[in-house]
Amino acid sequence: MAEEIINRVANSNLITIDLEDFYPQGNRVVIDIKNWLFQEIVLKEKEFRHFVAEHDWEQYKNAYVALTCSTDAIIPSWAYLLITTKLSELAKKVVVGNLTLLESVIFEDVIAKINTEDFKNKPVIIKGCANKPIPPSAYTRLIQKIQPVAKSIMFGEACSTVPLYKAKK
Q1: Cα(51)–Cα(36) distance, integer angstroms
Q2: DSSP secondary structure string, 76-116?
């Protein structure tokens, strides 16, 4: 007679954190302002303000927006601020930078809301494989958040983890 297979991982108090489970829904959009510049390099205030005034901002409703300029133009700070005044009531988040920075900022907010009591004195696995663009900074921020309370922290899958941290007894 065959022995019953027992799933020790399922029966343990091990907690798996998959940052994909926390991935906020919403479009990620980059607004490249180079086309709003004279010869894609010089910001002329009057023309720039016209582009901002005439742009269809509704398309960014509930989106996460990264503002950038892909040319070597020198952009005054007020230009991004002016754009942000149009986006602040529509977009979920606005940053100046690229999509990687945008995802990092989004996950700063996500991880700040995680309740660490759920991990108090528990072994934790941070799942490493993701199909969504989880930035590396999200994992480091998560470690900083849960390490003070976790019994141990591992990275990977339950079948093959890399130990990262073990609390002192």
Answers
A1: 6
A2: -HHHHHHHHHHHTTT-SEEEES-HHHHHHHHHHHHHHT--G
Phi, psi angles (nearest 5°) of residue 86: -80, -30
Please say which residue of 69, 91, 113 terminates a domain: 91
Both 13 and 44 in one domain: the answer is no
pTM of the full structure: 0.81
129 within domain boundaries:
yes
The pLDDT profile of the chain, 169 residues, written as one tens digit per residue, is 667 654 454 546 899 999 999 999 999 999 999 999 999 999 999 999 999 999 999 999 999 999 999 999 999 999 999 999 999 999 999 999 999 999 999 999 999 999 999 999 999 999 988 788 899 999 999 999 999 999 999 999 877 889 999 998 8
Between CA 8 and CA 6 the distance in angstroms is: 6
